[in-house]
Amino acid sequence: MKKRIEELVKILNEASKAYYQQDREIMSNQEYDALYDELAALEKETGIVMAQSPTVNVGYEVVSSLPKEPHPSPMLSLDKTKDVGELQRWLGDKQGRLSWKLDGLTVVLTYEDGALSKAVTRGDGVIGEVITANARTFINIPVSIPEKEQVVVRGEAVISYSDFEKINTDGTYKNPRNLCSGSVRQLSSKITADRHVRFYAFSLASGGGDFRFRHEQSEWMRGQGFETVEDVPVTADTIAKAVEDYSHKIADFDIPSDGLVLIYDDIEYGRSLGTTAKFPRDSIAFKWQDEMRDTCLREILWNASRTGLINPIAIFDPVELEGTTVSRASVHNLSIVRELELGEGDTISVYKANMIIPQIAENRSKGKERTDDGQPRKLFGPPDKCPVCGWDTQIMSDNGIETVHCVNEECPAKMIKSFTHFVSRNAMNIEGLSEATLEKLVDEALIRTPADIFRLEGCRQRIVSMEGFGDKSFENLLAAAEKASHTTPDRLLYALGIPNIGVANARMIARECRNSWSRIAGLTEEELSGIEGIGDIMAKAYVEFFAKPDNMKMMEDLLSVLTIDESFEEAADTLAGKTFVITGSLEHFENRDAAKARIEELGGKTAGSVSSKTDYLINNDINSGSGKNKKAKELGVPIITEEEFLEMIK
Fold first, then answer.
1. Is 101 a catalytic residue?
2. 579-649 is a CATH 1.25.40.10 domain
């Protein structure tokens, strides 16, 4: 038994090292939990607990160049169960609060005099990493709060599934938790800001007053501007129904969750229970019982991404899991394909991680030489050729993880990024044509050039037969493309993705050329440099773009399917010489870009931040405590509402 304990300690610590230190996974959550439970049972039976056992060590030491700081008291992990009856027995006759257990990265925020002064990750539970600059970029975090006494809030930094799908188009990250961990611990806060990290508070470590109950703490934190983890009151009699309700919600829950947390509502009672070496006694985690099904593996489909990474997808006989039919699951990389020894006709066990993401838990045919009907097993290996362009593939290794790549720089799969920009809102504005949809169309060789997007009518049969499509969605796609084909010169110019030519520059260039496309495409470096905001480097890249034969051919193709409105009206000079900054939500304009366009049409300028050169800050909430409002008041910049702005230009 001692030998098995030592073996389990080694395996689990290797998995923890990969998970906490390297932001990767070498086994599923389900497999980790099973091995952990086996270790805990053996330790209880034998009384032997090794010094490095994960049952007594919290997390894994972090390794990065971020500053490190010890926590005032250890941040312990939670004991767990998969049995609702155990939750009932644990709660007894007490009142509890049941909430989501979010699957991200725990962060501790400290506020001094109402301002965010420090943010530290959980780290190994004893020492965390200081990420204050990064935390300031979380999209829903208050950087200042009404309370002026010191406040310490604990919560979970997460990335939603919808944002994960938009960011992880190349399959670099296995799940939102991995992406979030890497994003929060970046050395550049700009990268963190681009990842749309959210923060959900789950407890008040100190400050805020003397609260008797957890729900009072949550109400107070919401009053300070925090988003809190959703929770409901429960007793031993109601908790089973509450767990069932959460299980129905999780299919549509956009925030990653790997279970639930039950905590005593009475704060003082919970504290009086103390802790074990690893767990607090005032709370317990509930992990979902994974619904497992055996099925037959048919093939491994290799999909090329825009970075050249070629990802393996397992295709198997359809099975019902958590109320839906599943027939495919990502295998993530070549190393996992080889480790599982996946072969044609193998019997595999599949489940939905966190009841959402299909995963392979086990290959029951692993190690066998022959299939059930006596034939030699045919193992799947990496593709020799890129499935999109046909070039030879290359196997690369990073931290012991093998991945398959296409090294052809002109591979159409790598054009996904430019296509995504081309169809974006400020460019051609083709509604409903997401990056995921573009990838499917490129994979099927239905799109090779931007003009192909407007020629999909003849591909009806192939598109409606694709997963996620139908006649209605196809008709919507055609309608959106038809609408977008009637465009303006500035939109088309921005859509081309010329280096450094953003929305504002595209509008200025189009206005300077009086919306004549032939003039726009034929500008010289000297003419461009004469336009305000266009520098020499931008002008050179612009002219080089239109001089390339491939780009000219692409433009000719595009012009054959587009209708460009070249009508031009002289702009009024109502706002000439005035600079505006816009903040907050808008009511009369569709979005900030529309408001900026109107300002520029009237001869004004827009900026992203308030400075001494700002003439007006547009903010419908004049009394807002935002940084821009404060800066405007410091500098004496007038703050006007949207309606006041409209009155100004009437």
1. yes
2. no
Q: Which of these is catalytic: 44, 82, 101, 174?
A: 101
Q: Indicate the CATH number for domain 412-484.
A: 1.10.150.20
Q: Give the start-to-end residue ranges of the domains of the chain.
A: 2-46, 68-286, 293-396, 412-484, 489-564, 579-649
Q: What is the pTM of this model?
A: 0.52
Half-sphere exposure of 306 (CA within 13 A, CB side): 19
DSSP annotation string for 253-301:
--S-EEEEEEEESBHHHHHHT-B-SS-BSSEEEE------EEEEEEEEE
Mean pLDDT is highest, among 354-368, 372-386, 404-418, 484-498, for 484-498
Q: Say which residue the tokens 């591909």 belong to.
A: 459
pLDDT in tens, 136-150: 889 888 888 888 899
Distance CA 369, CA 372 (A): 10
Side chain identity, residue 511: R
- What string of DSSP letters covers 468-510? T--HHHHHHHHHHHHHHTEE-HHHHHHHTT-TT--HHHHHHHH
143 burial via Cβ count (<10 Å: 0-12, 13-18, 19+): middle
Helix (H, G, I), strand (E, B) or coil at 102: strand
Question: In this structure, are residues 207 and 194 in contact, taking their beta carbons and an 8 Å threshold?
Answer: no
Residue type, position 397, single letter: S
Contacts 24+ apart (CB under 8 A), 273-278: 275/76, 276/79, 277/56, 278/55, 278/56, 278/57, 278/58, 278/76, 278/77, 278/79
- CATH class of the region 293-396: mainly beta
Distance CA 617, CA 584 (A): 10
Q: In what side-by-side order are the strands of the sheet with 151-158?
A: 115-121, 105-112, 151-158, 198-206
What is the amino acid identity at position 203?
S
Residue entry with tokens 């816009």: 582
Q: Which of 275-284, 418-427, 482-491 has the highest mean pLDDT?
A: 482-491
Residue with tokens 């969605």: 473
Which comes out higher in pLDDT, residue 455 or 210?
455
What is the 3 state secondary structure string of 124-168?
CCCEEEECHHHHCCCCCCCCECCCCCCEEEEEEEECCHHHHHHHC
Number of alpha carbons in the 13 Å side-chain half-sphere of residue 287: 17
Radius of gyration of the chain (CA): 28
End-to-end CA distance of the chain: 84
Superfamily of domain 489-564, CATH level 4: 5' to 3' exonuclease, C-terminal subdomain (1.10.150.20)
- Beta-strand runs (E) in 274-387: 283-286, 293-304, 309-321, 324-330, 347-353, 357-363
